[in-house]
Specification:
Elements: H1 2-83, H2 92-112, E1 119-127, E2 133-139, E3 144-147, H3 151-162, E4 175-180, E5 193-199, H4 201-217, E6 228-234, E7 241-244, H5 248-259, E8 264-268, E9 304-310, H6 315-385, H7 391-419, H8 425-428, E10 431-434, H9 435-445, H10 447-452, E11 455-460, E12 467-470, H11 472-489, E13 497-505, E14 511-518, H12 525-528, H13 539-544, H14 552-562, E15 566-572, E16 575-583
Parallel strand pairs: 11-13
Antiparallel strand pairs: 1-2, 1-5, 2-3, 4-5, 6-7, 6-9, 8-9, 10-12, 13-14, 14-16, 15-16
Length: about 575
């Protein structure tokens, strides 16, 4: 008794320590979750800054590449216009000199240019002192000039050449115009002529723009979709015309990108004199209606407006989504750690409880084995010493030895069954069984124990029961266990032990039910859920020191379930009933 109380106190103390450890672990996990939240926020801000810096750098490179295609061509025209000195020659000689120089420079440009197809044709306009204008088209292969008479070109260039003090016409996206500076004194002010390079819009929109944008904002190395949506708009046309994207899914992406606020927007397609380093600001917010004569980048803007938007809507939305994803992953990891720790604690607690139950089992079995062994040893010593002479006494000692041997055999069989060494009753024995006769046999086998404890036994309905099929010895052991439990724990408040066995047909008519009822104090509700688990004994049985192994009901349930039946308990103060339902033999 004292040992059991000490063991119980130790278990409660260990449970308290487990609770303390669980609380400390929970606090640590909560602190880690808070720190993790702050860390992910800092990482998100750093990622936002890094992504914006990368976006600005890629945008600068894209702007310089676009401007570079235009600037290289314009520089070529400028070198031709300033190096030929047409005023030093006269008439056809001056025209031939300019044509030869320009043809040679353009051929060099085409060999080094990334997109030479953007140049469609080149014209040269000459004006003399009498304001006579002549227009020629340059044949690059032969270096010859051919007369050109297009009314639209002549009219526009005529206005430019007649404008006093003009140095350069307004920039357009379909042509480049380079004035030929006047040489010598006298004559009307203004340029001596113009070099007009007509650009091929299809090559710009279908070759140059897609290639440059793909270079800086194309698909990633793993083949995923580009992170950014890019649109290019010509702001010189009315209304502004979308140059990129033009077709397929990109047109749909471009339309959606144009409707969203841009992460970065800048002007492009600028001529000679562009800045070597650009500063990029954020795009306009959604709904802004301000009229702009210049793109957002300020001075020196070109006629194209390039808008770049992250596929998720904005850089902030992308970093927020990444932060949420990181939080989900880290929270899931913390949750799994918490669950694993909880499972470890539960497993440790169950292992300690199982170890304690096994210790109780060993103690109970030792006590159960010691009692019949002592009785057998005493009977054997009395018989050996010759103290017993009368035949009736010898017969009584023999019955005692036989009774205690059965008790020992029952305990050993329970231990073997629990260890898995004993036979599986229903699978190995399928004999026909008379249930009424089986119940009478179980009562007879337990008679000595019932009489020893003064049990008042009531039997009802044991006659004319249906036949069963299964293991006879296994079922006898089940009902003997129930009788022994009712005898040990069924002592009422008046000190009497009353046990009743009822047998009747099951409610559905396909089985037979046997109920074993005692009038003891009952089983608490909390213990009823685990009463059929191995090694489990009630608190009252443990504290009162009643012998037992904690295996009887567990083995009884296994045996009944192997027969296709069920066993349940219904208990309240003053009454406990174990009800066994077994299927009857079908004809």
């Amino acid at each position: 008794m004292a040992d059991r109380r000490i063991s119980g106190r130790r278990r409660r103390s260990s449970d308290r320590w487990l609770l303390v450890i669980a609380l400390i672990a929970t606090a640590l996990l909560a602190a880690l979750a808070v720190l993790q939240y702050h860390w992910t926020g800092q990482l998100s801000d750093a990622a936002n800054r890094r992504m914006r810096a990368n976006l600005e750098e890629s945008s600068r490179l894209l702007a310089n590449d676009i401007d570079g295609q235009l600037s290289e061509l314009q520089l070529t025209l400028l070198r031709a216009a300033t190096s030929s000195s047409p005023r030093q020659a006269r008439g056809e000689e001056r025209s031939a000199l300019l044509a030869d120089t320009l043809s040679r420079l353009l051929q060099d440009w085409r060999e080094s240019a990334g997109f030479p197809a953007i140049l469609d044709r080149t014209r040269i306009v000459f004006a003399d002192r009498r304001s006579t204008r002549r227009v020629f088209r340059l044949d690059e292969e032969s270096g010859q000039l051919q007369a050109e008479t297009e009314p639209d070109v002549l009219e526009e260039l005529d206005r430019l050449l007649r404008r006093p003090g003009s140095s350069a016409p307004a920039q357009r996206t379909d042509r480049l115009v380079m004035p030929i500076p006047a040489r010598g004194r006298g004559g009307p002010p203004g340029p001596a002529g113009l070099i007009v390079a007509t650009l091929r819009s299809t090559a710009i929109e279908e070759q140059m723009l897609p290639a440059l944008i793909e270079r800086h904002f194309g698909a990633t190395a793993d083949g995923a979709a580009p992170k950014y949506l890019v649109t290019v708009t010509d702001t010189t046309s009315s209304p502004p015309r979308l140059l990129y994207p033009l077709f397929g899914n990109r047109a749909e992406d471009g339309a959606s990108a144009s409707a969203r606020p841009a992460d970065i927007e800048f002007s492009a397609f600028r001529a000679v004199g562009r800045e070597s380093r650009r500063r990029f600001g954020p795009g306009r917010s959604r709904g802004e209606r301000a009229e702009r004569s210049q793109p957002a980048l300020g001075q020196g803007g070109g006629p194209w407006l390039v808008r770049i938007t992250h596929r998720r809507g904005s850089l902030e939305a992308a970093t927020s989504a990444a932060r949420r994803r990181n939080l989900y992953h880290s929270s899931g990891a913390l949750f799994l750690i918490g669950v694993a720790f909880a499972l470890v604690l539960v497993s440790a607690r169950r292992a300690r409880a199982l170890a304690a139950q096994q210790v109780d089992f060993v103690a109970g079995v030792s006590h159960e084995l010691n009692t019949p062994l002592q009785a057998i040893r005493s009977a054997g010593e009395n018989l050996r010493s010759g103290i017993v002479h009368r035949s009736d006494d010898v017969r009584g000692y023999g019955e005692l030895i036989e009774r205690e041997e059965r008790r020992l055999s029952r305990l050993v069989q329970q231990a073997l069954q629990w260890a898995g060494i004993g036979r599986s009753t229903a699978r190995r024995a399928t004999a026909e069984i008379d249930l009424g006769e089986l119940l009478y046999t179980a009562v007879a086998e337990s008679k000595w124990f019932l009489e020893e404890n003064g049990v008042e036994l009531e039997l009802e309905g044991l006659d004319h029961l249906p036949l069963l099929r299964g293991d006879r010895e296994g079922l006898i052991t089940v009902f003997m266990n129930l009788l022994h439990n009712a005898t040990k724990y069924g002592r009422g408040a008046d000190g009497a032990v009353r046990v009743r066995i009822d047998a009747s047909g099951d409610a559905d008519g396909r089985g037979v039910a046997v109920a074993v009822t005692d009038r003891g104090p009952g089983i608490p509700k909390a213990e009823q859920r685990r009463i059929f688990d191995p090694f489990v004994r009630g608190l009252a049985a443990t504290e009162s020191g009643l012998p037992g192994s904690g295996l009887g009901l567990s083995l009884a349930r296994n045996t009944i379930e192997e027969h296709g039946g069920s066993i349940t308990v219904d208990s309240e103060p003053g009454r406990t009933t174990f009800r066994v339902v077994l299927p009857v033999q079908t004809p």
